[in-house]
Amino acid sequence: MSNISGGRPRVLEIEESFGFGGHFKDRDFALVIRAHGPFFKGAAALGIPFDRRVRDRCAAEARAVRHADGISAPSQYILDAISREWDISGIPTAVIPNPAVPVPPDLRWRPGTTGPKQILYVGRFDRLKGADLMLKAFNFIAEEKADVELLFAGPDRGLTDDDGRHWKLHQYAEAHLSPDARSRFRYLGVVSRTLLQDLRRTSAVCVVASREETFSYAALEALGAGCPLVAARMGGVPEMVADEHNGLLFESGRFESLAAQLLRVLEDNDLCKRLSVAALESFDRYLPANVAQETLNFYARVCRLTLTQ
Predict the structure, then answer these.
(1) Which of 4, 58, 98, 247 sits most deeply, having the most CB atoms within 10 A of its CB?
(2) Dihedral of the alpha carbons of 230, 233, 235, 241, in degrees to the nearest 10
(3) How far apart are CA 236 and CA 218, in angstroms?
(4) pTM above 0.85, yes or no
(5) What is the dihedral of CA 191, 266, 225, 37, to 10 degrees?
(6) How far apart are the C-alpha atoms of 133 and 273, rounded to whole Å?
(7) Are 95 and 76 contacting, i.e. CB atoms less than 8 angstroms apart?
(8) For 101, phi and psi rounded to 5 degrees?
(9) pLDDT tens digits along 227-245
């Protein structure tokens, strides 16, 4: 609950997840739905069948969104998707990014580290996050460059491919990486934030390969560390990553495009330095104080439009 001007709370912000916001019928406060990614988007990207359970959840989320006095989302991409799927005409909306704490200067990316160049992938092993694309791209890169390693940090949720076959990470790597590429592939599992900071500082490039992404924390944290970034041209990512400015974008779903952009970063030190500087400059928008002020401004606008009626 948020208190805009003193006294009793005047705003309740709640995620759209499961449609919980729809339970607040008679109220004397403004209801703001925070849309991180309605289930109709995630279910489609994961290939989950739209059975009764999924349809019921999507219907509940739709009712909650239509019941809201305001809707905010971390990207215009998700607001547009909601608008196409459900009628939200007349409801105030705002794009407000998710916040992140800046990385201290001594923990930011540094060019020219010694040893093998590291590609850092942070995310789940599943179809949604595009982990299969990362492995296929690395298999191609390993044939071109003998001094590159792939570090994979994140949980192994299992991946279902286009043919319906389910893979665990070790199975997929065994089947899709050459022996040489496998020898330079390191699965780290779930790691601490401290270790992730160190990996971003020392890796040559970070990768976001998602097939669906409302707002990418993996991309945001790479930007905050100043680490060169290659990310999918998908969802809300292009709103965060300006191609050829603070990162490079590849065509979503195409590992060949991912490999080509990674090779550019691995072979061009000047490009890496330019991307790093621009990444740090673009991070101001995500500072907690700036996000908080945008949020309060939106709350105040919603209250003026609803509580005075």
Answers:
(1) 247
(2) 50
(3) 13
(4) yes
(5) -70
(6) 26
(7) yes
(8) -85, 135
(9) 999 999 999 999 999 999 9
